[in-house]
Amino acid sequence: MSKKKVKNKKASTKYKMYDKEGKRKACCPKCGPGVFLAEHKDRQTCGTCRYTVFKKK
Ligand SMILES: [Zn+2]
User: Fold this and answer.
1) Residues by chain with Cβ below 5 Å of ion ligand 1
2) pLDDT per residue over 13-54, tens digit each?
3) Per the domain annotation, does 4 fall within a domain?
4) Using an 8 Å Cβ cutoff, are 24 and 18 in contact?
5) CA 28 – ligand 1 centroid, Å
6) C-alpha of residue 33 to centroid of ligand 1, in Å
7) What was the pLDDT predicted at 41?
């Protein structure tokens, strides 16, 4: 599957919030939608800007 540029799609940011399982993915608040946070056991991190969110119990 190749990445396609989406042209003139109103909800282009919305559908990216979900992965193929329909689960909501966390996006980096600094890098914006489309940059997802990597899942770790106790935290989520952005590979681009190193933003980290620690999960609460
Ligand atoms: Zn980021």
Assistant:
1) 28, 30-31, 46, 48-49, 51
2) 555 555 565 666 788 999 998 899 999 999 999 999 999 989
3) no
4) yes
5) 5
6) 10
7) 93
